[in-house]
Amino acid sequence: MRIGNPTNNEFFLELNKINEDIQNSFLKRMVHETRNVSCDVMLGDSTTKKVETFDVKNVETFFGKFESNLPEWNSQGVTYSSDEDLRRIFVKSEIKIGNYILSLHASLQYHVLLYYKPIQKVIDLQKKLSELIDAGGNSESKYEEESDRLIIEKLNELGFKDMPKQELFELFYNDEELSNKIKKMIDDSQPEVVDIQGQKNELFKELDNLLIEIFQTTSALIDEQKLVNGEEGCLCNIDLEYVDEGAKQGLVDASLIDEKHRVLIKQNITKLLDIILE
Length: 278
Prior knowledge:
Number of strands: 8
Strand content: 25-35%
Shape: elongated
Oligomer: single chain
Number of domains: 2
Number of helices: 8
Radius of gyration: 29 Å
Helix content: 40-55%
Largest sheet: 6 strands, antiparallel
Distance between the termini: 27 Å
């Protein structure tokens, strides 16, 4: 069961009160850890501007406290996940108390924007790249035409003369050994174009190395459904489950929890609040 859900049970109401303090304190802490700072960035057109970002390492350090300050809990450590520009940093920990498992899931979801560092080298590389693209435009068109011609020519030599052009290209792309051999022939026949392509690739790599990540999130508590939907924000969920023959059960009967385990459950939830308030 999720601590914080509506209940009439006196013990669970006590836990809900602690959880309310946890939620409020957690949000305040996350607002602090994701505080914005200004930085200068460069756009693709070489213009510069100021943007707001935060240091995700602050969140990582904060989440790490749950693992370092709760040695008796089992933790997966601080983990990152990403889906294109959507990122998530989270920590999951749990402790077994008799036949019960108390678990924590703290998470922050945010977006990443990419900009260039505001330095002259970016402008210089973009200029070189533009010059190469202008110089190699016609050559690359001829290279593509020559590539198509050589592919068909070589396949015809190998006995595929009467096959439709589409089938010839499918054969080429599906036969790795054959395609590599023909690609080498094409490259050897037009080394100047291959050289231009190589230079362009190197320039793109250099530009990629000059990209910086800008982080954006929202100072709001969200639930797991909003997390799955890709919304920005943070969450701090605490669950209590009952273990029956090795399987976790979400429905917990408070009347079956003895006083000893009630005390331990309450103490461990309070520890979470203490860590957040540090």
